[in-house]
Amino acid sequence: MRWPVLVIALLAVALQYPLWIGKGGWLRVWEVEKQLAAQKDGNRKLEQRNTGLEAEVRDLKTGYEAVEERARFELGLTKPDEVFVQTPQQK
């Protein structure tokens, strides 16, 4: 009576092994789901950055305000007959 129960228990364990630990088992599925969530988060951040860059490019192509702003702050350019005054900032 003891041997059949032991054999059935061993068969049950042998059948459960691929389900939990095997190549396509639950542990692997959980790991891949975690990687997928991290990738989706990274993609969402990159999409937001791309949206901002697209808006900036569109603004630079269509409007002169953005070009003028960049020229002023990045290159230090001024308009004709304009006086540039810079004050030192205190820390």
From TrEMBL:
Q: Report which superkingdom the organism of origin falls in.
A: Bacteria
GO CC annotations, alphabetized: cell division site; cell septum; plasma membrane
Q: Which loops or segments lie on the Cytoplasmic side of the membrane, by the record?
A: 1-3
The keyword Cell inner membrane belongs to this UniProt entry's keyword annotation: yes
Q: What coarse category fits the chief subcellular location reported for this protein?
A: membrane
* Compartment(s) where it occurs, according to its Swiss-Prot or TrEMBL record: Cell inner membrane
Q: Which residues lie on this side of the membrane: Periplasmic?
A: 22-91
> Which keywords does the record carry?
Cell cycle, Cell division, Cell inner membrane, Cell membrane, Coiled coil, Membrane, Transmembrane, Transmembrane helix
Please name the InterPro entries in this protein's record: Cell_div_FtsB, FtsL/DivIC
Query: What membrane topology is given?
Result: Single-pass type II membrane protein
Name the coiled-coil region(s). Answer: 36-70
Asked whether the keyword Nucleotide-binding is assigned, the reply is no
An individual GO BP term = FtsZ-dependent cytokinesis
What the protein does comes down to: Essential cell division protein. May link together the upstream cell division proteins, which are predominantly cytoplasmic, with the downstream cell division proteins, which are predominantly periplasmic.
For this chain, the family text in UniProt reads: Belongs to the FtsB family.
Provide the assembly information: Part of a complex composed of FtsB, FtsL and FtsQ.
Q: Which NCBIfam families match?
A: PRK00888.1
The record, for PANTHER family, names: CELL DIVISION PROTEIN FTSB (PTHR37485)
Q: What is this protein called?
A: Cell division protein FtsB
Organism the protein comes from: Zoogloea oleivorans
